[in-house]
């Protein structure tokens, strides 16, 4: 299938379906179609864009190539609810079902863009894109310029299009071609207003149904209220009496509360004076507290200083105690040494006496030995003299011989 835009060319008479702006409605500016984008809609698996330039746009292609699907998409995006008009049995039928090696699509989307420079559509945008989506879950979405809206919003926005735009189905063309000229004009006029009229009729039918429901409810109410009229009159009388009593009560309450108010105002005055005095007392107490705070701070400072001095004194006393303890220890040590020395002196005196005795003994021994030595020396000398005499006698004997 191909899309061509032969500007100014007449639509081919054999074209089975087409969409065009009404040539007999130029008095009012009509929003021109700019673009139709399809994605996953019927035979349009991938994103397909139909750009409608000024002039005539013809979509041509062989049978079954998807030309009617384009017209279906336009009907669908503008809110068509009848499956028959879309040549489908259920919503899912408009979603690409797969084929030619492509997997089925999960969603069908069609977006129709209008030129709204003249603000023909009641929305303050120069371009308006109306879009519709359908999912296999059955969920449907409507969007106007990308924002999610309700179907009603699309219907209200495009209600006026019925007077300027018309989708003519294949059957209608056949019918038109087989009719006489006057019948054909009537058919087109009827068809042209049909969309707008259909909407108005639906609206009127809805309000009619609402009105009928309201009047039924009213009739029911009247039927219900009739028998209760007397009791309602009694209730109304009681209500009036109650209203009078309520006025009296209000007056009594006004006087009573006026008195209470005067008493309360006097109490307020007294309390206010007491509050002022109490506030002054609070201020004075606060000043006193501030002063006490200052004094307390200086007392704390003095206490801290005294504490430091006491700590220093403690340290000195501990050092002195240590020195006293050490001096005592040294004194005890000296006394001990003194006692030991005394004991040693006594021992030494004993030793000296023993030694003196020994010296005396040894001296006596020496004297004895000296005497013995002198005797020995005398004996030695006598022996030597004897020896010398014997040697001289021997020499004389040898000489005589
Ligand atoms: P004709 O001139 O015979 O009316 P046409 O060109 O208008 O043909 P359409 O009727 O628009 O063609 O398109 C029909 C084609 O769309 C068929 O081939 C059909 O298989 C295909 N089609 C319809 N619905 C779907 C879908 N959900 N998924 C895939 N293809 C679909």
Name the overall outline. Answer: elongated
Mean pLDDT: 85
Radius of gyration: 71 Å
Order of helices and strands, N to C? EEEEEHEEEEHEHHH
Question: What ligand species are in this complex?
Answer: adenosine-5'-triphosphate
Number of strands: 10
Approximate strand percentage:
5-15%
Query: Low-confidence spans: pLDDT under 50, at least 5 residues?
Result: 2-28
Derived from helix and strand composition plus strand pairing, the structural class reads: alpha+beta
Major sheet, described briefly? 6 strands, antiparallel
- Report the end-to-end length measured between terminal Cα atoms: 193 Å
Q: What spatial order of strands do you see in the largest sheet?
A: 4-3-6-7-8-9
